[in-house]
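Apologies for my clumsy wording, but are you able to produce some protein sequence, whichever is easiest, and the tokens describing how it folds?
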Amino acid sequence: MTSYRVRPRFKQLTYLNSQEICERVERHFDYPQPCEVSITSRSIIFKIPLEERHFWSPRLSISLEKHEEGTLLRGLYGPNPTVWTMFMFAYGAIGVAGIFSLLLGLTQVSLDMGYNFIWVSFGLAVAAIVLYVIAQLGQKMGAEQTFTLHHVFESIIHEKVHIE
């Protein structure tokens, strides 16, 4: 499950229908478990318990889709939505600032006015790489909890799940 993707995911076809999967999840959580669960008719969300949760704690969101042979499960491992939103906002801000500084820098170069904004663009590219590395380090900090969520889910459906 060690992945360089920001949000690892899986797709699994199971012979169970969505109601059977939800019933299995509810039965499985009748006794204390290493995670919390939220169930709707089309999705299941596994979270780390509040007392063990930290900034980089993952969650597993599973969507349930009808299929001719049963149910198609689409799983997505990711951080808390506020963490994800913060990173996407930072990537967007760096991207917009990078485009404008690159345009201004190329204009300055074409007018022989120096390279100031080209250096700003380079700095923003480095900032984007640093942000990606921070996200990867955070993902590694939550890896043990990700494995916990993954193993709980596999024990519920009694199938091995391959992460893409």
User: Anything to note?
Assistant: The beta strands are 9-14, 36-39, 43-47, 58-67, 70-79. The longest helix spans residues 81-110. The radius of gyration is 21 Å.
